[in-house]
């Protein structure tokens, strides 16, 4: 699994600079379509896809691929031509995002499917019931590739109730998230060690 290899290499390199205790933490933004049953999930997913403006979606996908593409005349239900995919080294912004969508395209996804993926802008996205979403989160936590989770969808009336009263209680039941705050700021709530005094190089950069 690429995520495990990435996390292992990241922490190995961090340790070479004196970081320890399984640091740094890895944070994921979690996008989801959540429903009460499989049938409800399928309905919500279908309705979400029907709300997509596919003409605007072409522009959004082009942006995910670096911005210098014209997708306006391509058929929605055919894959992107390989010749359109940019060389990542030629892109000067968000190369990780570009690499994600290059990989999707090379897997044979149609333009329509790529536009659907672009709605989540390359973030981790799962559709399911609260229990199924908790399964996906638990797998990453136990694999060591997830420490901090940012939930996308709060503030969306269609999703918020199931997130707050379905997913979060299930994550607490599995002891995957805390039941309360333990400190007064983000660092203390993550139970990270306090910051030490700034080094000479840090002081010189801010002077």
Outline of this structure?
By secondary structure, the protein is mainly α. It has helices at 2-16, 38-50, 54-64, 95-106, 111-118, 130-143, 157-173, 186-189, 200-206, and strands at 27-34, 124-128, 148-151.
Word description of this protein:
It is a single chain. The longest helix has 17 residues, at 157-173. This protein has 207 residues and is mainly α. It has helices spanning 2-16, 38-50, 54-64, 95-106, 111-118, 130-143, 157-173, 186-189, 200-206; strands at 27-34, 124-128, 148-151. It is built from nine helices and three strands, in the order αβααααβαβααα.
Shape field: globular
Strand content: 5-15%
Contiguous runs where pLDDT drops below 50 for at least 5 residues = none
Q: State the end-to-end distance.
A: 43 Å
Total beta strand runs: 3
Strand order of the largest sheet: 2-1-3
Helix content range of the residues, please? 40-55%
User: Counting H and I runs of at least 4 residues, what is the number of helices?
Assistant: 9
Write down the Rg.
Answer: 20 Å
The arrangement of helices and strands along the chain is HEHHHHEHEHHH
Instruction: Outline the biggest β-sheet.
Output: 3 strands, parallel
Q: What would the average pLDDT be, to the nearest integer?
A: 89
- Backbone structural class: mainly alpha
What are the salient characteristics of this protein?
single chain, 207 residues, mainly alpha, three-stranded parallel β-sheet, 49% helix
């Amino acid at each position: 699994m690429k995520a495990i290899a990435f996390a292992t290499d990241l922490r190995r390199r961090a340790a070479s600079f004196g970081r320890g205790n399984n640091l740094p933490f890895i944070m994921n933004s979690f996008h989801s379509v959540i429903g009460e049953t499989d049938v409800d999930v399928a309905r919500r997913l279908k309705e979400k896809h029907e709300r997509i403006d596919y003409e605007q979606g072409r522009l959004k996908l082009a942006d995910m691929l670096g911005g210098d593409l014209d997708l306006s005349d391509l058929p929605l239900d055919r894959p992107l031509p390989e010749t359109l995919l940019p060389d990542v080294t030629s892109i000067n912004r968000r190369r990780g995002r570009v690499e994600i969508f290059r990989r999707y395209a090379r897997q044979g996804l149609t333009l329509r499917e790529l536009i659907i993926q672009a709605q989540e802008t390359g973030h981790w996205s799962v559709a399911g019931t609260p229990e199924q979403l908790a399964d996906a989160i638990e797998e990453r936590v136990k694999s060591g590739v997830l420490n901090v989770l940012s939930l996308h969808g709060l503030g969306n009336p269609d999703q918020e109730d199931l997130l707050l009263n379905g997913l979060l209680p299930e994550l607490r039941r599995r002891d995957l998230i805390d039941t309360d705050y333990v400190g007064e700021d983000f660092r203390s709530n993550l139970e990270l060690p306090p910051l030490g005094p700034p080094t000479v190089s840090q002081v010189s950069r801010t002077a």
